[in-house]
Structures are given as C-alpha cells and as structure tokens.
Amino acid sequence: MPVKEQKRRGLKPFARAAVLTAMGAALVGGVASQGVAAAEGRPDNNSWTELDKRPGTPDRMHFKVNKKEGKVLPGERATVSVEWDLWNIWTTFQADKAGKGQLNAAQDLVKLFAWQTANITLNGETCADFGRGQQPATQKFERGKKEGGFNFEPVDVGGLVAQVRNLFADLASGVIGENVVSDFFNSNVRATCEFTVPENPGRMINVGGDVALNNLFGLLRSNQKGLAYLPVQLPKAPGKPTIAPAGNTVDLPEGGELTGKADPGTTVRFKVDGTAYPEPSVVADAQGTWKLRLPSDLKAGQTHLIQATSQKLEGGPAAASDPKIVNVKSGDDPAPHVKQPVITSPEGDTVKPGQELTVTGSDGSVVTPVDKDGKPVGPSVEVKDGQAKVTLNDDLPNGAKVRVEAKAKDGSGQPKFSDEKTVQAGVDKPVITSPAGDVRPGDELTVTGSDGSVVTAVDQDGKQIGGPVEIKDGKAKITLPNNLKDGSQVKVVAKPKEGSGDPVSSDPKTVRAEKPEFYQNVVPTAKPGENSYLDVNFEPKNGDVTSIAGKTVTLRAPEGFTFGNVSYVVVGHNGIGKGIGINNLVQRNDDGTLAVTLPPAEEMKATFGDDIKAFKLSITAIAKVDASATPGEKAVGEAKLDGFTPVPLKGTVVEK
C-alpha cells in the first residue's frame, strides 16, 4: 500500500507497530506501565481549587478542595480529593500521531490487568477518624466501579478475545484513529473525603494521599504517597465575655443559672475546671445579655472554676471570661430571704428605653430587669447598701411591660418581682432651627429632634402641610407649600417611627408672605467639630441687586461657631443661580467678624450679565461648630448691611 494511502487510512507504520507491541505485551502478561486503567478523566470544575503540595509529592498526584477561594472555615463541611494521573500510553509515541477511528477492545484489555485504590488522611488520621464527635466524615473512591474502591470491571473473556482479534486486524490495516489514547489512557483515579472542619483546627490542615497501583492481575504493585496544605481562614475572636454579678465567688444550686454579657450574636458556653463544655449553650441577644444553666453533671457540694466562652457563629477562636468560683449548693439548704424589689426612680408608671432604674432590695440579692415573659432586658446588678441601679436595653418597643426580678445570689429560692411599668418610647420635642424668626411660603425648614422619629409640618388647624420625614443624625428638612396665608401659623409634630406613643409639637412659627429685604435664610445646624453653613439674603423689592454693589456686609458668627470660606450667589427668577468665591474680598477682623465688600455694579454685571434677571443675592459662609460647644440654639451673631436694619444670626448645635 502506498505511504500516502496509509496516512489517509490511519496510523503511520511506525506508530501502528508501537501500539501493536504495547498491546501485545499486555496481552501475554507484560506491563506497559504501572497504573494504566480506564478511569474517567479528572474534571475541570471551577468550584474546586488545587492545593499547594509539600516537597517530595509525586508530580502525578494532585490535591483539591471544593472551595473556590481554596480555604475552609471552622465548623463548615468541606470535601478534599487526592487524584493520580494514570499512564498516558500516547506520550510514549509523540513522534507519530494516529488517524481517525475507534479503539474499543483496548479499554477492556487494560481493565482486566489493572486496578487502583486511594486513601486520604487529615492531620495523619484517616478520613473516618478525623473530627470524631462531630458530623461523621466519609471517604469515597469516585472513579471506582466496585464497592471497596477497586477500579476493576469483570469482562466477557470470550468477547474480549474477539475484540482483541478485531483490534489487531484494524491495527494491521492502519484504520486506528488518532483519538483512541485520549479516550482510554489519559485518565486518573480519585478519592474524596467529606468532613467537618474542627472549631479550632489551627491555620493549616495537612492532607495526605496514598494511591495503591496494581497491574498485571496485581502481580506488580506500587504505593504513591504525598502531602498538601489546606489553609484555614480563622475569624477574629469576639470580645471578652463577663459573668455577673461582680466578685470572685458565687453560690448556685444544681441547675442554677449564670448571667452575663458577651458580643451580641455570639454563642456562649462554659469551660469548667479548664474543660470546654459544648452544651449547654446560648446565643447572646441584641444587647449582649446571656443566661445559661449550669451543666447537669455539676452536683451539690462541689466547687468548680467556671469561665464563660464566647465564639462567633461561623466558628473560629473563642474568648473566655475571667474565672469565677462557683459553689454548687443543695436544694435542701435554707434559701436566703429576699425582699420584693421596688423601683424608686423614675416615679410613675412609665419608663423609657435605655433608662436607668434605681431599685431597692435585700443586700446581696441580684436584681435584673425582665419583660413580661421573664426574659432579661438589661444586665444584672447586685444590691449593695440596700440599693442598685439597672439600665434598660435601648431597643425596648413602645408599650412593652417591664419589671425588676430579685433573686438570691446563689440562685436558690423563689424570685421576687417589683411592680410593672410600661415602656413609653417617647420622642424629644422637635425644634425648627431654620429659618430664624418667621417663615415664608415655600421655605425649607430645618428641624432637630430624636433620631428615628418622624416629623410632619401642620398648620394652625392641625392639617398636614409637609412631610412626613424621618429624623436622621439629629435633623431633617421639610418644605412648606407656596400657598400659605400671611399671618397663619405652622409647627412641626414628631412621633415615634412605629406610630405609637404621644405626639410632641414644636413651638409655632408665624407665616409672613411679604419678605424683608435683608434676612437670614439658612441657620447652621451641626454637631460639635462639624461644618455647616450660614446664609444671609438680600432681596430688594425693586429687584435690582446691584443697588447694594460696593457696599459692605459685616458678619458676626453665632456663639460657638467660627466662619470659614465665603462666597456669594446671584439668583434669577427662574431659580438658577450663579456663584463666585469672594475670599479675596473678605476682611477678617480681630474681633472675629468678617467684612465682605461686594464688587461694584459694573463688575457684577460683567460677571453675570443680564440673562439671569437677578432678583436675589445670597452670601454664604462655612460655619464650623467649636469642638467644645454645648448643644442648643445659639444667638449673639449678627449681619449688618449699610442702609438696612441689622439681622440677628442664629445657629444650632446638635448633640453628638
């Protein structure tokens, strides 16, 4: 047969002879290479990440974890794999490539002669033994076809002989294809171990692989071993928990409860005499309060050193409290006498979220604010000299019922309770801080009040005319409608966000439809150390802003404020303004005042032209609140303009 025809039909003579030699050697008992098998190829799965191997691990051994980032977290389930690349017969014959066709009998032929097993270890332990006491770990030989991990399938020997005969006939005639090897010999074996990452695994888990290769009916054997690193991402430890009440020693009955504080949302457990107890456990509430019974194996007459440990829900290192000596008492011991606690302050039937309560009771008893179901709504405190102060949680809802529970320090006896009080989640009185003085139709009001409260502008009849708006960072803005009548009054009403509770109203403001020509438009409102701005307007009745060109405006900052940069804006009837910085026109006097000399009329016209049809000029100064300023409305400031009545300037300092 011509060489050209041989190439068209399949393998070159040299390559075909090489395959025949290799297959013939296998058929009569020879071995082409250890590890040849018909396992499936290693998958290209983006959810698996290859791990770094330790030196000395064979090149054909690979380790992976089913985490894209290649790291595991304490407490989570993870799967690692060890894979061994089987021998690729075609790499022996790189000089000659096969043509197109099929190789069917070779797969069965190799399966008859070879099998493999693989095992995984974690930190030197078998997969099944790792993490005992947690969710069981399981190992699988995923490429195997038979229980026990053997990569071996029985074949029909008679059919095999027939296939091999046909195979050799095809090889001899040159019709074997170029893809035969990639289908059957470029393969691997793979074992996986699914396990739970321990709560405190350290920063690294050593993953070991042991692949046993058997060929020629098991007459030739080889064990290939290697190691890889599995990184562990450890979350930071939470804050140090505490056990209440204060002191080094506490007496409790069997099954008695300890309480304390921990980071909200963390899991609290006990460590007794240095031994960690996985149960009982409890999750600290939103205020960080926890309550937990003693483990059942702590019996009366025993004394133990107990710590509270706090751990994030995602695992990681735990923080431990200072140790407390706990004397476990018998239930037969006489219970100490505990008086009924009395809330002496505040007086009345209502309390506020976050409020401090003054309680009287028996010395040495422990008092805790609780809700109607007995759940703590604040930390426990020991009564000393007949009195204690407890603080309610900040998140108590309006209308909730609270009382104070008193118990013996050792937890024995029945608790006593104070009279009940109702939570009134009230709001602070809102204050209209801007504009100063009377308001005008269309004005924007700046309102201060309680964060989270909702404010609404109403007229003198209580009809809503603006808002509602939620107060954030101590303030909110509401725009008045343009159709308010001269001489009418407006005020702002504040309510809790959920709508319950009594509304609180601001002082009323009078509406003046006719505006003065020179007035303060914006009152600076900010917290100590923060910036706001102050704005004074000149709005001439004749509409000619150039009538004050060349004049001087003198500004004195309100008490507790300091002026920064200054600019002015000319505003047209269409609401569009054009502004320019005028720091070069500002004289800063020794008494702290600013003297702003406005440009001449020609310069103003050249700057802004006639297209804006100006009707108002605003001078704006950055106003910074002094760091030591006290909260409240500030006066003393003043704005003077030649030929006009001086305007008092105000500012408002908001609580931090």
Automatic annotation (TrEMBL):
Q: Which GO terms describe its biological process?
A: carbohydrate metabolic process
Which positions carry the signal peptide feature in this UniProt record?
Answer: 1-28
| Entry keyword annotation includes Signal | yes
- Kindly state which keywords UniProt assigns to this record, in alphabetical order: Signal
Does the keyword section mention Signal? yes
Print the organism lineage: Bacteria, Bacillati, Actinomycetota, Actinomycetes, Pseudonocardiales
Q: Which InterPro entries match?
A: Ig-like_fold
- Per the record, the domain of life is Bacteria
Q: Where is this region: Disordered?
A: 38-60, 240-265, 330-380, 407-442, 494-514
* Protein name in the entry: Bacterial Ig domain-containing protein
Compositionally skewed regions (Basic and acidic residues) per UniProt: 50-60
